[in-house]
Amino acid sequence: MSGTFDKSVIIVTGAVGGIGSATARLLVEAGARVVLTDVVRDGGAELADELSAHGDVSFTPADLTDEDAVRAVVAHALDRFGRLDGAFNNAGISQAGTPLVDLASADFEKVLRINTVSVFHCLKHQMAAMTEGGSIVNTSSGLGVMGALNQAGYIASKHAVCGLTRAAAVEGAERGIRVNALLPGTVRTQMQVAAHGSAASPAVLERTRQLHLLGRMGEPEEIGYLARWLLSDEASFVTGSLLPVEGGLLAGRRL
Ligand SMILES: NC(=O)c1ccc[n+]([C@@H]2O[C@H](COP(=O)([O-])OP(=O)(O)OC[C@H]3O[C@@H](n4cnc5c(N)ncnc54)[C@H](O)[C@@H]3O)[C@@H](O)[C@H]2O)c1
Question: Which residues line ligand 1 (CB under 6 A)?
Fold first, then answer.
């Protein structure tokens, strides 16, 4: 993949996390210049240092729920690299498992603010900056197109990411900007651990085996490969798509 991106400039959000850092690594290896951003500062500079050995990388922290902070991330990309060609809008949080009837409004609003409003902020400022076209990938979830127990806030937030993706794809098409969403199944990251416990625990292994036809959880790189492809010109006829990358989670059950 080396050289695929020919110095294209790509923003990766949630870059310190599992899927974000794996994807950033793949993009740098393929020749992209990458702006890493995350609300978490710890680890961001270290990741940028590590990836800088392979290409041009910069880290700028931001809480994406703050529109001014998002504007500043895009301005940072333009100041540092002079253009913006792509973005992987991947930052997000999980929701504690709570029945809808017990879910506090504040908790519902919090997950929508981080998982959905942040993506709106990103799309708005990234699309305005992509004056020569581009490609944007948003991370939704398998739960962006299906229901599940005790996850009403997360499910609503990720369905909304799918809607935003399609809305942005329609408006972006005239500007030469493709916009797609990924629907990951369970992936081995901190978020998975926070939501369900150690990836090695028998309960988690059995749960992932039951849920995914392939019988296991995904690795962050397995999401990153598809994100990288969508961001590349190889996906030049793909826009407005909601692409599953979920080991068969959505396809059916082994009953
Ligand atoms: N891990 C899974 O099983 C799974 C499944 C489906 C979808 N996803 C989605 O994948 C994306 C990446 O998650 P991950 O699994 O790598 O988890 P992760 O917790 O490792 O990474 C998420 C990152 O987002 C950052 N973030 C959170 N709030 C932010 C904010 N307000 N501003 C900026 N950054 C913020 C976090 O600091 C973290 O680094 C998320 O959108 C998540 O919903 C994950």
Answer: 13-14, 16-20, 38-40, 63-65, 90-93, 114, 118, 139, 141, 184, 186-187, 189-192
Position in ligand 1 atom list of the atom nearest CA 114: 31
Predicted confidence (pLDDT) per residue in 58-111, tens digit: 999 999 999 999 999 999 999 999 999 999 999 999 999 999 999 999 999 999
Q: How do beta strands 134-139 and 9-13 pair?
A: unpaired
Residue 247, helix vs strand vs coil:
coil
- How far apart, in whole angstroms, are the C-alpha atoms of residue 35 and residue 53? 15
E strand or H helix that includes residue 35: strand 33-37
DSSP 208: H
Domains of the chain from N-terminus onward: 9-186+219-245 (3.40.50.720)
Q: What pTM was computed for the model? A: 0.98
State the Cα angle at 252 between 212 and 150, rounded to 5°. 70
**pLDDT for 209-239, tens place per residue?**
999 999 999 999 999 999 999 999 999 999 9
**For residue 160, what are the CA distances in angstroms to 112, 146, 202?**
9, 12, 33
- Residue with CA at minimum distance from ligand 1 atom 11: 90
Tell me the β-bridge partners of 245.
184
